[in-house]
């Protein structure tokens, strides 16, 4: 035994504000792609498009978007987003995947519409803690009727690792979305890997929540 905590019954760290002053700039996020510091990236994507859905994504890194299309062997086109200077949208040739290269905080300016399904993996845990309320307000404004909103977050001891990815306990999800959403924890799994030892932590759980209309 290596002494690592593996019990899925471990309680969440009680202080939800321990990382509140942590900040990562947009430039630093883009540098992660340039420097290949992207352990959060998954080549095996969740291809809702393969099931007949139209998919819209948001990513600040143009390199990350181009790599997505290359990895999925998809041809694409690109065009400027007139409402956001310097931003672009990349569209698959099939027309059912559109990836916006911009800050999520600028997305409402595109009048993008409402969504009945949202899959948040690696987004809420990447948002600077001080920006979460703004992020939640934007995401809430994009929800259509009878929506289903999946949110994947991480649980660890935030006194040992400053983030990102940031620690997001259930209490924080309830604070951000509880007024308009029913919140259900669907799954909690042990996600600790050897590389996480360099973070200084000894446990890491991945939790999947389903948010639905109240």
Automatic annotation (TrEMBL):
Keyword Cytoplasm: yes
EC annotation from Swiss-Prot or TrEMBL: 2.1.1.67
Top class in the EC scheme: transferase
Source organism, top-level taxon: Eukaryota
Record's signal peptide: none
Keyword tags: Cytoplasm, Methyltransferase, S-adenosyl-L-methionine, Transferase
BP GO terms, sorted: methylation
Gene3D superfamilies (alphabetical): Vaccinia Virus protein VP39 (3.40.50.150)
Localization in the cell: Cytoplasm
Catalytic activity: S-adenosyl-L-methionine + a thiopurine = S-adenosyl-L-homocysteine + a thiopurine S-methylether
Cross-referenced Pfam families: TPMT
Gene Ontology annotations for the cellular component aspect, listed alphabetically: cytoplasm
Example of a GO MF term: thiopurine S-methyltransferase activity
InterPro entries: SAM-dependent_MTases_sf, Thiopurine_S-MeTrfase, TPMT
Family: Belongs to the class I-like SAM-binding methyltransferase superfamily. TPMT family.
The protein's assembly and partners: Monomer.
Name of the protein: Thiopurine S-methyltransferase
Organism: Saimiri boliviensis boliviensis (Bolivian squirrel monkey)
